């Protein structure tokens, strides 16, 4: 019975959060100074066409009826039609989202692989120069504008040193040579047996994922350091040291093992943040993902696409939050 009650509570919470997300995106679409009718018809539409399109879009209905209609459309997978591409927004989002997922996944792997050891090392050396150096690097990682870092990285590693390819997911020569099975170029190239395209895609992925991963490293390292400092003050750590256990085992097995569960939440939230925060990175590197799609749609006053993309990002954030909560309960019996 307690498990059923918690399940129902979680279900109600998720439903309420999704409803709140729908309400926010709906209100944004109504308060922005962009007329959806003119966006669809153009500014030379006559009064009759304007009134007809307004009725077709349901803009003549009371606000609460418009919201109910909006919720019903979203529930059926209808996010509207993009003015920019003339295709359903959901179709566009499904086409561009794998590129964002590919970039964010590599970035969060970089963040976890580098951030966790850095945070542990900083905690073990608290107050000494390694701790100060790691904290300073984390501060720099969070402070420098990502578009500036991207431009400087392109200038240095692409334009000057020629170590990496330019913007885009693959060279122009390879575009369209692999069928989009998953939408993730590296995976699709391997499925097609095209190793040349795979390695070219990896080379294109290195720089933008490293720039985006820098923010993940800073966040994960800071959180890991805080968790570790708390664990290293616990009595079981003192007991383990008194028993003669090696410092390596005390730190990496016992202390780190006890923070594994909250670290999952941190990494999941970092991943969600990378998915929604890749807009500037995708713009700088011409990466054809969801961030660039939303940016181009916003510049074209295509609010259906902007709100649809925002809604998908919010839904993914909620899903990852839910997943981290479920993993937390699965791995830590005390949370059940």
Characteristics:
336 residues; mainly alpha; 15 helices; 75% helix; 0% strand; globular
Q: Could you give the distance between the termini?
A: 12 Å
The count of β-strands is 0
Q: How many separate helices?
A: 15
Question: Which structural category do the helix and sheet elements fall into?
Answer: mainly alpha
Report helical residue fraction.
over 70%
Query: Which residues form runs of ≥5 with pLDDT under 50?
Result: none
Please trace the helix and strand order, writing H or E for each element: HHHHHHHHHHHHHHH
Mean pLDDT: 82
Integer-rounded radius of gyration = 24 Å
Portion in strands: under 5%
Shape: globular
Main sheet attributes: strand count, strand direction, barrel closure: none
Give an account of the 3D structure.
The protein is built from 15 helices and no strands. By secondary structure, the chain is mainly alpha-helical. The model has no long low-confidence stretch (mean pLDDT 82). α5 packs across α12.
């Amino acid at each position: 019975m307690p498990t059923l009650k918690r399940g129902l509570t979680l279900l109600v919470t998720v439903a309420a959060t999704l409803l709140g997300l729908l309400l926010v995106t709906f209100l944004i679409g109504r308060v922005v100074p962009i007329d959806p009718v003119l966006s669809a018809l153009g500014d030379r539409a006559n009064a009759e066409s304007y009134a007809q399109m307004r009725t077709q879009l349901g803009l003549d209905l009371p606000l609460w009826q418009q919201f109910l209609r909006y919720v019903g459309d979203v529930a059926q997978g209808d996010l509207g039609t993009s003015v920019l591409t003339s295709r359903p927004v959901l179709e566009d989002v499904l086409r561009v989202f794998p590129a964002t997922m590919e970039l964010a996944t590599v970035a969060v792997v970089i963040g976890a692989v580098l951030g966790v050891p850095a945070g542990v090392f900083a905690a073990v050396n608290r107050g000494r120069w390694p701790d100060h150096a790691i904290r300073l690097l984390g501060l720099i990682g969070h402070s420098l504008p990502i578009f500036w870092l991207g431009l400087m990285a392109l200038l240095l590693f692409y334009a000057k040193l020629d170590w990496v390819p330019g913007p885009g997911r693959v060279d122009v020569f390879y575009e369209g040579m692999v069928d989009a099975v998953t939408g993730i170029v590296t995976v699709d190239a391997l499925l097609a047996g095209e190793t040349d395209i795979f390695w070219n895609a990896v080379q294109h992925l290195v720089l933008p994922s490293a720039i985006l991963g820098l923010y993940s490293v800073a966040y994960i390292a800071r959180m890991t350091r805080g968790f570790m400092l708390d664990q290293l003050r616990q009595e079981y750590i003192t007991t383990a040291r008194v028993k003669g256990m090696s410092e390596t085992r005390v730190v990496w097995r016992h202390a780190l093992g006890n923070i594994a569960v909250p670290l999952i939440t941190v990494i999941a939230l970092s991943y969600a943040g990378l998915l929604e925060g890749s807009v500037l990175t995708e713009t700088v590197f011409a990466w054809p993902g969801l961030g660039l799609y939303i940016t181009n749609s916003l510049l074209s006053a295509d609010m259906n696409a902007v709100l649809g993309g925002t809604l998908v990002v919010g839904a993914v954030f909620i899903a990852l939050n839910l997943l981290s909560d479920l993993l937390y309960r699965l791995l830590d019996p005390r949370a059940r």
